[in-house]
Amino acid sequence: CVSCLVGSEMCIRDSVYTDPEIASVGLTEEQARQAGYDVRVGRFPLSASGKALTYGETGGFVKVIAESRFGEVLGLHIIAPHASDLIHEGGLALALEATLDELAGMVHGHPTLGEAIREGVLAARGSAIHLPGQARPVCTGCPGIPDSVNPCKTALAKSQGCLDFSQQQPRGLQ
């Protein structure tokens, strides 16, 4: 979007250096609705982030706003440690008119705070990996690793409803 490259207000990020930090770029959910967009919203709480848990700072969240038809990202809002460092991904998404699918396909390290952005994107699509009750990608397992130590096939993973490996489909979605 050319207007983003020449300084459109929509593409200028805001950061507040508090504890935790607050950062935002693009439209809020309310602004998007007022502008006439049919929106999809993805929320990911830091309480579900492995990295935030290791920091002991789980009080924040990531919120992704996108239009429903094509999934174009309209806004990103973060309350988290280092939010001012993380918000740039949202600015780039807006400048490139990126979609939820495009951001979901981007690899994020684990565990990192940055993966909370991808989880927010996945939540907007209804498929967050670390949120209970959302569809999870089907795991094909780790070939050659015994089931007893295979991270995809442990009793813990199965008990948390991750996958039904006998049918290779997420449980509850048949």
Structural class: alpha+beta
Strand content: 15-25%
Q: How are strands sequenced across the largest beta sheet?
A: 1-2-5-4-3
Question: Could you tell me the number of beta strands?
Answer: 5
What is the C-alpha radius of gyration, as a whole number of Å? 18 Å
Please state the average pLDDT score: 80
Low-confidence stretches: 155-174
The largest sheet is: 5 strands, antiparallel
Q: What's the quick description here?
A:
By secondary structure, this protein is an alpha+beta fold. Helix content is 28%, strand content 18%. The chain has a five-stranded antiparallel beta sheet.
Written description of the protein model:
Mean pLDDT is 80; it is low at 155-174. The radius of gyration is 18 Å and the shape is globular. The protein has 174 residues and is an alpha+beta fold. Strands 1-2-5-4-3 form a 5-stranded antiparallel β-sheet. The relative contact order is 0.14. It is built from 8 helices and 5 strands. It starts with a helix and ends in a 15-residue tail after the last helix.
